[in-house]
Design brief:
110 residues; seven-stranded mixed β-sheet; four-stranded antiparallel β-sheet; 1 helix
Length: 110
Amino acid sequence: VQLVESGGGSAQAGGSLRLSCATSKYALTSACLGWFRQALGKQREGVATLDSDGTTVYADSVKGQFAISKDKAKDTVYLQINSLSPEDTAVYYCVRAFENWGQGTQVTVS
C-alpha cells in the first residue's frame, strides 16, 4: 500500500493548509485512514481518523480546527487545517490501518 503526502509547507499563523494523501482505491475503501503528526522532540500523536463507514474521530487538541475527508474519485485523503498556530508545526503522516505509513510532509507555522 502506497501513501504519498503533499500540501505541507510554511504558513502564517491564522492561515489554513490542506494536506493530501494519494493512495489506491483499495487502500481508500478497505480500512481506517488517519493522520498523525510528530513535532520535533515530541512523540508522534494521532490527530484524526476516518473509518471505512465514514466515522471520524479527532484528538481533543484539534477538534474544530482539523477536518479529515476523502475523495473516492481521486483516491485521496485530505486533512484540512484551519486557524494554524506555531503549535501545529510538525511532520504530518498519512496512515492506513495503523500499519501503512506515508513518508510525511512538513508543516511549519510562524
